[in-house]
Design a protein that fits this description.
Blueprint: H1 14-21, H2 33-43, E1 45-49, E2 54-56, E3 71-77, E4 80-84, E5 87-92, E6 97-98, H3 100-105, E7 112-115, E8 119-125, H4 126-135, H5 138-158, E9 168-170, H6 176-185, E10 192-194, E11 199-201, E12 209-215, E13 218-222, E14 225-230, E15 235-236, H7 238-243, E16 250-253, E17 257-263, H8 264-273, H9 275-300
Parallel strand pairs: 9-14
Antiparallel strand pairs: 1-8, 2-7, 3-6, 3-8, 4-5, 4-7, 10-17, 11-16, 12-15, 12-17, 13-14, 13-16
Helix pairs in contact: 1-9, 2-4, 5-9, 8-9
Length: 301
Amino acid sequence: MDELDFSAKPAPRPEAVARATAQVAAQSPLYQPAVALEFFRSAGTIEDKPAGKPIFSESEKAGGLFSKNARMYLLLEGEIGLMIQNKFFGVVKPGHIFGELAVIAGLPRSATAMAKINCRVLSLDEKQFHTALEKKPEFALMLMSTMVQRLRESIAKLGTARPASAPAEHSDILDRKTLAGLRDALAAQEPAGFPAGKVIMSAGAVGAFMYVVLEGRVAISVGDSVVERVGPGGIFGEMALVDRSARAASATAETDCRLLAINRNDFINLVKAKPAFGASLLKSIAVRMQQLAQQLAQLQA
């Protein structure tokens, strides 16, 4: 690992790059380096990374007895090389974030990140990330925007293809404390009931609400294929509120359901006022990104 070569090599498999790209903040017009810098400065740790040394390694787990304490990074100086199976496929430039999904969602590393030259970074572990989010909750909205952009790209690639794997099951994205706080904040709003078979939202429609599942199960579909099922404590429909674009997927009640509907104004206010809610949304989007990348990989295999 100490002597990995960054010279030209055959490119790694596209599906592997798709999975790894989900763990590096895109250089998107929605991304604001100044907001990221302010966020990392509020609770982060400055680290120097010598050239040729890995910062984290492919398949490294974010949690557990034999894992390292995962950190996410903002590059201040230098250049970071990204590698899959010892093959170089991209770089991170100063002002950009990398490695965030291991902290946000506890996902294993999809690539190796290595300093190509001597680098300086600001880093955050999970505790520091939540501390920074308490101070700068608006960062969650910016990061959600870039992540949703990448998620929409993956959904477009998936198109009408039928996934090779069973749909993912999402429940308990919101823990009891966060869910209770959410219901208190929206106490004036009655949950909506949807009978089994009822279409809750349709792909291509304007998104006025996101939903929290209180009871029942909802199927999320892209084309004719169910790609995800959402149970109590799970959330869906947030993408349209983040970027104010059309729905990327459809949702249908598989069983009788009770849902808490949240409009965009309440959504923005909740993210700013309740950092735990913002963190839960980031985790939900991150997990979806990883799962869609895996489905794309299976289709391309």
